[in-house]
Amino acid sequence: MDFVDYYKVLEINKNASDADIKKAYRKLARKYHPDVNPNDETAKKKFQQINEAHEVLSDPENRKKYDKYGKDWKHADEIEKQGQQRGPFGGGFSGGNTGGGNFSEDDFSDFFSSMFGNRSGNKRGGQSKFRGQDFNAELNLDLKDVYTTNKQTLTVNGKSIRLTIPAGVENGQTIKIPGHGSAGVNGGPNGDLFITFSISNNTKFKRDGNNLFSTVDLDLYTAVLGGEIMVDTFDGMVKLKIPAETQNGTKVKLKGKGFPVYKKEGEFGDLYITYQIKVPTNLSAKEKELFTELSKLKK
Amino acid sequence: METDRLITIQQFCVLHDVSDSFIISLNEFGLVEIITIGQQQYLQHDQLRELEKIIRLHNDLHINLEGIDTITSLLQRLESMQQELIAARNRLRLYEE
Fold it and tell me: How far apart are CA B57 and CA A33, in angstroms?
């Protein structure tokens, strides 16, 4: 992984005192703590960096090693041992694989991964040991999928979970599945699984909460004289009576023909239909004649 | 009341390395609810997530109970505003599509 300048992370100078380090750490920890920045991955990463920087710089031994060897500070003992073996004229540390050591640079947040409950060897006084870690997942569904309650099987961290998705779930809504996070420690309860729904709409209906909206074309003659038309709703066609002299843009409400209300079985929102009157085109000579006659009548 | 979904305060305190008095203070602040059955005091499993967050805020950031109370309220407001934002974004899609 890339070298992280711990001084930059803590926004301090290289000659900062222990008190400066502590002060800077506390200030930044308050700002980026994951509990005060829920669902913010950037803040979480930053907090891990801050913690690691503080862990190294607040320990005089580690700080000395870090100041001297920079990114290779974890290998400091090995480098010094090599230096002693080679004598005063030996070569410096190559920065490559020195062999033999079990060091790894990918353990970036080893120090503090335990803070979020995913490591049992916690040295910081038993924080978050009891309850399992929460899992977050995103589920992509189509609007049609959430019109009815349906069952899905999800695979989360290798485990299959049977899930009942209640009809009427909203785009962006998060539901909690208790006990389907990681296992609890010391007999404690499991964490929870949080599923956020991303719902795409490929239908001709627009959705606002439980209500649906659609536009229906209406021919001029039906609008003027009235009549009956068949319109599409989310669960099939319905017959609508059109009153004579219906104006363009008229809205009608079809009660209970909207979207199901979340977790309220049998309750539905409304469907709002807007009539869009289509003026006839490509008129025949006869039609033109009749329209002309009509227009004369109105004068 | 069944104790299936409850944990004794003593057990919680041992596992989280906090004192009983800390939990009692949280209860006095209205931040957690203690359930008493007979001689035993319990916490509900449903509260553990929130309680662990409170302990982390207290231990990691040295925030006192007044501060935690304020942060908790603000986080609740933040959450409800996020819900409103989601609803508003969904409504906005009506006009963008």
Answer: 8
